[in-house]
Amino acid sequence: MSTPKALTEVFAPVHTPDAFNQALMENLDIYVDFPKEKINFVDIFPVFRNPYLMNGMVDAFRRAVETVQPWDSVTAVAAPESRGFCFGVLVAQALGVPFIPFRKAGKLPCEVMETSYDLEYGSATLAFPKGVLTSQDHVLIVDDLIAVGGTMK
Hints:
five-stranded mixed β-sheet; single chain; alpha/beta; two-stranded antiparallel sheet; 24% strand; globular; 29% helix
C-alpha cells in the first residue's frame, strides 16, 4: 500500500519531525478504492497500538490549532462519530476541556441540534444535545483524517 499525497500534505504543515512522520505513515493501513472506486480508506486504528504515535498525533493537532488560534482559547472539543471520537477525546483531555460527541441522527434520546451534509459517497446527518454549547464557546472540531472534507464542511 502506498501513502496518498494528501496524507503527507495534511501532516507537513504541523512540522512533525521526520522520524515521527515516517512512523505514522508506516502504521496507517490504506485500502485503495474502498468503499468505492477512487476513494481510499485510511485505517488509523494501528496508530492506537503505539503510545508514541498517539501522543504525537495529539501534539500535531495542538500545533496545527496554534497556527490559527491560541490553544488555550478552546472551550470544548467536538468530534463526529465514530472515528473522530478516538482523537477528539484525547485532544479534549490534553486541553482540559469538555468533549462533545457529534452523533449520527437518531442515536440520542434528548432534544438535539442537527446538521446534514453530503459526502463523496452519500449523505449523513450529525446531532448533538441541545444546550451543551453556547455562542460564547470556541469549539475545536477534530476528526480522524480528512479525506475530502465532506464531514467538516
